Amino acid sequence: MTQKLVVIGAGMASGRVLEHLFDAAPNDFDVTLFNAERRGNYNRIMLSPVLAGDKTYDEIVTHNGAWYEKHQVTCRFGERVRAIDLGRKEVSAADGTAVPYDKLLIATGSNPFMVPLPGADLEGVLAYRDLEDTERMMALRTGQKAVVIGGGLLGLEAAAGMATRGVDVTVVHLMGHLMERQLDGAAGYLLRKALVEKGIAVRCSAHSKEILGKDGKVTALRLEDGTTLPCDLLVMAVGIRPNVALAEEAGLAVGRGLQVDDRMVTSNADVLAVGECTEHHGALFGLVAPLYDQAKVAAKTLLGEKAAFVQQRVSAKLKVTGCDLFSAGDFAEGEGREDIVFRDPGRGVYRRLVLENDRVIGTVMYGDTAGANWFFELIQSGEDISAMRSTLIFGPDYQGGDTLDPMGAVAALPPDAEICGCNGLSEGEIVPTISARGHGTPLRMAVGPAL
Amino acid sequence: MTEPTRTTCPYCGVGCGVLARPDGTIQGDKAHPANFGRLCSKGAALGATIGPEGRLLYPQIAGARASWSEALGLVAKGFKDAIQTHGPDSVAFYVSGQLLTEDYYLANKLMKGFIGSANIDTNSRLCMASSVAGHKRAFGSDTVPGQYEDFELADTIVLVGSNLAWCHPVLFQRLAAAKAKRPGMRVVTVDPRRTATTQIADLHLGIRPDGDTALFNALLAEIARRGLIDQDFVAAHVEGLETSVASARSTPKSDGLTEQDRNAFIDLWCRSERVVTLYSQGVNQSAYGTDKVNAILNCHLASGRIGRPGMGPFSMTGQPNAMGGREVGGLANMLACHLDIENETHRQAVQDFWNAPVICQKPGLKAVDLFDACGKGQIQALWIMSTNPAVSMPDADGVAAAIRSVPFTVVSDIVDETDTARLADVLLPATAWGEKSGTVTNSERRISRQRPFLPAPGEARPDWKIIADVATQMGWGADFCYASEAEVFREYAAMTRLSRDFGRDLDLTGLSGLSDAEYDALAPVVWPVPETGHQGPRFFADGGFYHANRKAKMLPVEAPAHRRSEQGLILLNTGRVRDHWHTMTRTGRAAQLNAHLAEPYLEIHPEDAARIGLLPASLARIESPQGTAILRVMISTRIAPGQAFAPMHWTAETSSAGRVNTLVAPLTDKVSGQPASKSQPVRVTAFGAAWYGFAASTEQMTPERPYAAVARSDTGWRAEIAGCKTPHDWVGEARAVLRIDTGTASLSLDSARGTARVAIAHKERLLGLFFAATEPVAVARAHVIALIGTETPADVALAGVPGMDRPDPGAIVCACKSVGINTIKAAIRDGAASVDALGGCTGAGTGCGACRPELEALIARTMPPALAAE
Fold first, then answer.
1. Residue A265 per-residue DSSP state
2. Which residues contact A69 (CB under 8 A, 6 or more apart)?
3. CA nearest to A238, candidates A177, A155, A181
4. Assign residue A132 a region: left if phi > 0, alpha if psi is -120 to 50, beta otherwise?
5. CA atoms of B466 and B456, how far apart (whole Å)
6. What average pLDDT does chain B have?
7. Helix (H, G, I), strand (E, B) or coil at B342
8. Min Cα separation B432/chain A (Å)
9. Contact by Cβ (8 Å): B605, B643
10. Spatial distance between the Cα atoms of A290 and A305, rounded to a whole number of angstroms
11. Any chain A CB within 8 A of the CB of B794?
12. Do B497 and B508 meet the contact criterion of CB atoms below 8 Å apart?
């Protein structure tokens, strides 16, 4: 029997839910898709390449008209949902029409957080959220000035994209180093250096005081120290907040976000939610990987299968040409945590692994992210790395070879050298020989680190 | 290409013929009867040792460059003043088995005939003085009766105290080839430790140190018991049989062997008429060395197995011209031409021949006594030629202090920085192998020419010329006026007339008339070379010994009482490694020779290591009353419990604490004065290193950390290091070790584990790599060394191992072809089941062949048991 599914929000999370549903059960759902934007699902995280001119909008569209048509999705794009009536199991659209549902999927995403500075309502002050924002930035001409408040992933991508177009960009960041949620100070320093080399001005530990304007239009940002940064456009990229107003009004349980259980079901059994609007076990989501995991779970729940969403450690990459950067897991210093660091100032490479109980729990890579996936896998698998610790930071290419020889320098003696580990005998070969002679332990290291 | 120059290798006593070109191309000389074209790893690498770096090019006075005339004037004055004020015995020469016969001859002539003292001794004292003394006691002269071909003709070869495979590799190869051709041939090794040589042995006797006399006395007693005494030979040519046999019968069986092993050896020896007993430093470097030599000679004399093809005792010398030195009287207790210092007629004859103003009246100071006298202020002027006693003498620290205390010290050498050169007031630059011209005599009495193929660098002069120049400055110009080394040789050859006329063995009169051209063209020749008639190359088949009654003497020799070493002490044995020579002033320059063993080590039994708490590849502190050394721990059952072995090559130039002769007490053989270098009781403890390091640099590193060993590499220099305090600034530490203060440093740091790795690059080119850890550093050293000078990114280089797609060749086993142990083992696993098969697929063992015993051992160990059994 076909179920009526209403989806609010055509973003990346809900788009992925629909893909899973149509793959698994092409005819089970009659879908109505509301979207406040006048378009369907596109890959929002690819807006930065669009801004940088590396891609066009068409290239980042994930679901076009033909796709929705093929799956007989009723698209109500450009239409906001005004209210949800949980009792009647229907949603009412801005035009007053009501659409009944068997199941409702809320995917309203997040709203960019706008710092409540004086002048924040001036023309030319915007967030970096959607294609319209992107187009505003792309409209700047060479030599025009832009200020970006926020030196996180999004802010830096905005800054770099505009800088690529010849815009004179200044990044204003409240914290001591850029991307402090993803990078440690050392990597933040290298990143800043690289951005400065690209012509982007960076001000860290900088407190914004007010936005100045003329004729209702932004002209500059003034900092607390009195510095004035003239600009034609001011982009705020200081964070997001789950967009939960609609759900809250409907009476769904809302904390910082719309609360869901492991099956992505809200406090109402017929209402599911995915994406940046959700809160799962107290956590909010801003990166795409966990959203895709949520989508998979939500689809299964809709199909009546058992599934549970498990939060994984996340990784982050900065999509700025020439700033090869990767960060994953937890890299705060702390009791019982050890780190392995590699620095190559000549090539601008920085790499840090954070270990706890012989397991990798976090990594920051800058300048050369080869091996990033492997480190991320190690973080996710929680594999014991003690045996490969001495070469761990150099990546997967240097693991698992022949046993190395600590006796290197005296290695080639002519042995019947059963004992001498120098010849790379395996432990299995050595130990019996020794125990036959009645002394074991001190000699076991003859085999060296078991790489 | 120009014709190569035919010359002779300057290393061991085998005396191999070499074809050399000025570009450093080296080949074995197929026409030379010592080696028939073979070369060992050291000989094959000679081309890498002839570069200009480190050479002493100009005379120096007090460290400053001086002219030859200033320097010679000062040397002459220093010696003359001492002689005038304190008498001729207040001066001394300490010379070397590396000198050519002509050099040696003039040094002796100057000291014994003109200065009038016999205070000229030589590093040969450390090498074969006990053989000389044993020969003289038994034969009445220092005569090596046999020939190398006897090794090939014998049915049984006994190698006593000889690691022939590493120390005389070409002879070992000849022996191995002969055994391969005639598998019935039997080889016995007698050595407290198992070595590469043991690989060829049908029977190995892991004898107790200094147990040789007991063993050979047991053999002699059995020879008598079985009626194998050659009654006719003994009756006609030998005396002392009865007392010797009686003494042998009463000797306790204190050789430390099982009855079964001893009997197997004795039975084999008795059943083999063609038996050669070859002995080397394991016999000589002992407080009982001379007695050990005579115990061996007794067996050959009693059985008449001497002087005939395929049989006889054979003293294998360590140095290229130890024999030549002996011939010209290069020891404090000899005169030239095997004449006796104690014999007034001999002394007079020598003085007359030289037309000398004086002649020494008594034996001079032997090496240990000589430096002892230096320390006691009895020597006012000392001249050290071409040797490095501050490293090579027992109690090396004491000897260095003694040299420093001598008021006037002269060192002539080819390099400017040696542990001994640092102690000199005057440095005189000598020409090196490849530049100098003269003759050497090998262990089978074969005289070969060393011929020059390179110009002398800077103002270096041949040693004989330097000696003649000093003699001239001292006022004896007319007696030391030689136009060439050929003229010196002719005088010496003519002088052997004295020896001949006294009825002694040495006769080169047939060479005394050589023209300069004939001397230049002289083909290798075994002495005696009489003016007329021809004598076979062997001695004593028909008697003709050199005691006054023309008989040989068997000597009753007692086995030394077995010394139990003090509780917990280890008996330290010292010796050579395969690819190094003496104090490495030359072999150390050849990167390929440092690849085999790049640092000093202590080989010790697992039981002792466990008791002491030594881990493989950790460091051990070795202490004796004389000194201290710190060495890499190499745990091995090749060495017996309670014993240890350390190589003797490392100096203060190449290591911070690897001079093992600082440990050795100046205890000598009472007859020969040869030091006992192989049985020093030492205390071994774990050296508590806070960190271990390995470094490779384009720059020359210096051994400055608590433990450090520095060696040349293909790409610059390599070093093993260890420190007692963990540095706070690893990059600073790395730069200090690598001696690089330019470029950009990359660091990988695991503070919790104390692991740090530093790469230094300039414009992407790697200048240095440094690896430190709290454990002995596990990196693929050959791989790391190869990265220096390349544009490898720092993280790739600091991984310290080749990536997955590039196999690590491993530590170098075959120095000639640069084949690593991993390559070899892979080939064995792929089915290369013989040394020849390995050579076919990897090239290993196809150069000099010195690594072939190691390859055999690897095959035996690496092959799956089922295959190995086939």
1. B
2. none
3. A155
4. alpha
5. 14
6. 93
7. coil
8. 30
9. yes
10. 19
11. yes
12. no
C-alpha span between B748 and B758 (Å, rounded): 6
A418 neighbourhood in chain B, CB within 8 Å? 637, 861
Mean of pLDDT values over B523-528 = 95
For residue B806, what pLDDT is reported? 61
Nearest to B102 by CA among B320, B337, B328, B353: B328
Q: Are B259 and B228 in contact (CB under 8 A)?
A: no
What residue type is assigned to position B112 of the chain? K
Tens of pLDDT along B307-322? 999 999 999 998 889 8
- Predicted TM-score (pTM) of the model is 0.83
Please, where are the H alpha helices in B31-124? 41-44, 68-86, 101-108
Structure tokens at B2: 């120009």
- What is d(CA A69, CA B544) in angstroms, rounded to the nearest whole number? 119
**CA nearest to A301, candidates A335, A266, A275, A333:** A266
Centre a 10 Å sphere on the Cβ of residue A59 and count the other Cβ atoms it contains. 12
H-helix segments, B690-738: 730-738
CA-angle at A295, arms to A291 and A300, nearest 5°: 150
Closest by Cβ to B853, choosing from A398, A410, A414: A414
Torsion A394-A397-A400-A406 (CA) sign: negative
**Residue B734: closest CA among B707, B701, B710:** B701
Angle CA(A327)–CA(A329)–CA(A333) in degrees, nearest 5? Answer: 95
Q: Token match 């150069």: residue?
A: B847
CA–CA dist B16, B18 (Å, integer)? 6
Residue A157's H or E segment, with its range, is helix A153-164
Kindly state the tokens that stand for A60: 């980042």
Determine the Cα–Cα distance for residues B86 and B75; give it in Å rounded to an integer. 16
**Which residues have CB under 8 Å from B342's CB, separation 6+?**
B362, B363
What lies within 8 Å, CB to CB, of B495 at 6+ separation is B336, B337, B350, B353
* In contact, B733 and B721? CB cutoff 8 Å: no
Residue A425 scores a pLDDT above 60: no
Q: Which residues pair with A213 in a beta bridge?
A: A218
Q: Which helix (H) or strand (E) holds B522?
A: none
What is the rounded end-to-end Cα distance, in angstroms, of chain B? 49
pLDDT band at B499 (very low <50, low <70, confident <90, very high): very high
Residues present in chain A in total: 451
* Rounded CA separation B794/B761 (Å): 8
The DSSP code for B423 is G
What are the backbone angles phi and psi of residue A214, rounded to the nearest 5°? -145, 130
**How many Cβ contacts (< 8 angstroms) between chains A and B?**
217
Pick among B164, B750, B775, B855 to test the A interface (most A CBs inside 10 A): B750
**A149, β-bridge pairs:** A172, A236
| DSSP calls for A53-70 | TSS-HHHHBSS-HHHHHH
- How do residues B229-269 score in pLDDT, each as one tens digit? 999 999 999 999 999 999 999 999 999 999 999 999 999 99
Measured in residues, chain B has a length of 870
Dig out the tokens for A352 from the structure. Answer: 């840090």
B717 touches chain A (CB under 8 A): no
Mutate to test the interface with B, among A341, A413, A425 (most CBs of B within 10 A): A413
**b/e for B88-108, b at 16 or more Cβ within 10 A?**
bbbbbbbbbbbbbbbbbbbbb
Structure-token pair, residue B856: 């055999």
B456-459's contacts with Cβ under 8 Å and 24+ in sequence apart are B456/B431, B457/B52, B457/B55, B457/B57, B458/B55, B458/B56, B458/B57, B458/B58, B458/B429, B459/B57, B459/B58, B459/B59, B459/B68, B459/B429
CB hemisphere CA count around B103 (13 angstroms): 29
Which chain A residue is nearest to residue B578, measuring alpha carbons?
A413
